[in-house]
Amino acid sequence: MSHAAFARVDGFGNLISHSPEVLGMANCLDSSTQRPRTFGAYCFKLNFTPTSVIASPIAHPNDNEFAPILYTAANVTGQFTKDKNGRGVECPAGFQHAAVVGRSGAGDGISVPPGGFFVTFFG
Question: Quick one: residue 34, left, alpha or beta (phi over 0 = left, psi -120 to 50 = alpha)?
């Protein structure tokens, strides 16, 4: 049986709409401190195990060439990426079905597009 789900995250990092298969979203954790990252890296809890995740930024009047590029991961356990400062990023327990991280050149290298993004999950 195949599954699909979607979610929309706004430019402030809020989950504003989603299909019933999306059970929740959490901020990723800093691997060394286990504290939630404040912005730009998100983990999702689904009612199925995805095999692929696709994220697309939403157009916004403040877009420019420095907007973050979205990267995705499915079935995330442990540290799956690092920020620009070398700090590990991971998903909290219960939210390890998928992750979306916005990579940018500013700050610690993790951000979200001004218009937010859509994410689609397939399994």
Answer: left
- Show the domain range for 99: 4-122
Burial class (CB in 10 A: 0-12, 13-18, 19+), 112: buried
Q: Of 60, 47, 52, nearest to 10 (Cα)? A: 60
Count up the domains in the chain and report the number.
1
pLDDT in tens, 13-71: 999 999 999 999 999 999 999 999 988 999 999 999 999 999 999 998 887 777 889 99
Taking only the tens place, the pLDDT of each residue in 91-119 is 999 999 999 999 988 778 899 999 999 99
Neighbours of 116 (CB within 10 A): 20
Residue written as tokens 């199925």? Answer: 48
